């Protein structure tokens, strides 16, 4: 059974071309579930400094996936150097 999730991840603002990073995660989610919506919020001020950054490039993705995949997605977010912060939340039906 697929559950509905949303994730927000913040890309390091020093990265010039953010499209390959966004595509990497969209393709990964599509391979293991279904992307419903990708909303690029763009550069925003961070609430607090992260790794010497005061701004970050925000991306929101709504998707459906199996619960086991979410753990793998979070693992990949953690090891991706270009992603400075992320959160994955299950949405209520």
Please provide a written account of the structure.
With 93 residues, this protein is of the alpha+beta class. It has a single domain, classed as Alpha-Beta Plaits (2-Layer Sandwich), CATH 3.30.70. The chain has a 4-stranded antiparallel β-sheet. The longest helix is centred in the first third of the chain and has 14 residues. The mean pLDDT is 94.
Rounded to the nearest angstrom, the distance between the terminal CA atoms is 13 Å
Please give the order of strands in the largest beta sheet. 2-3-1-4
- The low-confidence parts are none
Structural class: alpha+beta
CATH homologous superfamily heading: Ribosomal protein S6/Translation elongation factor EF1B
SS summary, helix count:
2
Percent range for β-strand residues? over 45%
Radius of gyration, in Å, reads 13 Å
Features:
four-stranded antiparallel sheet; 93 residues; alpha+beta; Alpha-Beta Plaits; 4 strands
């Amino acid at each position: 059974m697929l559950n509905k999730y949303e994730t927000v991840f913040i890309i390091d603002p020093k990265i010039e071309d953010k499209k390959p990073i966004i595509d990497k995660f969209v393709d990964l989610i599509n391979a293991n579930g279904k992307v419903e919506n990708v909303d690029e919020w763009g550069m925003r001020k961070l609430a607090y400094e992260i790794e010497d950054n005061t701004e970050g490039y925000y991306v929101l993705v709504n998707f459906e996936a199996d619960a086991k995949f979410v753990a793998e997605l979070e693992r990949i977010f953690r090891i991706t150097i270009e992603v400075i912060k992320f959160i994955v939340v299950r949405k209520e039906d």
